[in-house]
Amino acid sequence: MRKVTIIGAGNVGSSVALYLAEHKIADIYLVDVVAGLPEGKALDAEEAAPIRRYDVELRGSTDFSCMVESDVVVITAGIARRPGMSRDDLLNTNAKIIKSVSEKVAAYAPNSIIIMVTNPLDVMAYLALKTTGFALKKVVGMAGILDSIRFRSFVAQKFGVSVIDTTAMVLGGHGDSMVPLPRYSTVAGIPITELMSKDDIDKIIERTRKGGAEIVGYLKTGSAYYAPAAAVAKMVECIVRDKRRILPCSAYLKGEYGIEGLFVGVPVMLGKNGVEKIVELELIPEEREALHTSASAVRTVIEKLEDLGII
Ligand code: APR
Fold it and tell me: Which residues span the domain enclosing 246?
């Protein structure tokens, strides 16, 4: 059985653990700094196993050394948004947490693949890469899948069709400047640009961009976790089972799409080595410009971290 460690046993982390267990994808270790939380969540999930019929190992600990020999480390440690906050407002607090967590991953699980979830995640993925010194393909951020499944849900609602018959592609940073691509989003294989008015598509794009804030607005004390966790579990499955699926993820670009030295959401092939390949879609000038604007927003936040002396 493969081993996955989830750092941060909060809402997202514990939901990831449950999805992975339900699909028997790996043995799961939950780690947190709050004593009792990872142990309690892991034990509770383990006790559901006789009915839910999973026989993976589920353990919780505050001792980071339990992540040794992990194939994948999912990082969800940090604080989540509250109403009125942008993902970038989390920067100072989460950067310090991610730096210290990354040092521990480098020490205990140097051969693992990191999936970054903590926001602002394109920047946190960059920080983890710089702190661990891992190979570029071994650090990947979760965002595009989440943004795409939100987009798909809204398209399915609009047409009254099953979400299963929809596809979507969302590129860019995981923020208000993300770039949904209607030309590459379909219902039963037909691009939505042939099925919907521009006005309706624009409404869905806007709702997708604000999808995280919509949930924060309802929850008030935290941010979304079921859909983010489902997206993470999909990524873990692709890596652990070497699925080589093409999914939008935040990956380090070395000139692809004309972007250099940043994590930005693009379609990647995910497999046992992490980011096996970056897929370059043909973009029309308007889409390319939107992607570059989104990348600049990510770069600005990285510069803030540099000013703070964290990178
Ligand atoms: N090491 C390990 N765990 C930590 C650390 C640390 N240094 N610092 C904080 N944590 C833990 C907290 O104790 C908490 O249990 O991270 C957990 C975060 O859980 P929640 O507050 O429930 O937040 P969650 O909704 O899971 O979101 C986590 O993911 O989607 C992003 O924006 C979101 O950045 C946020 C992150």
Answer: 144-308
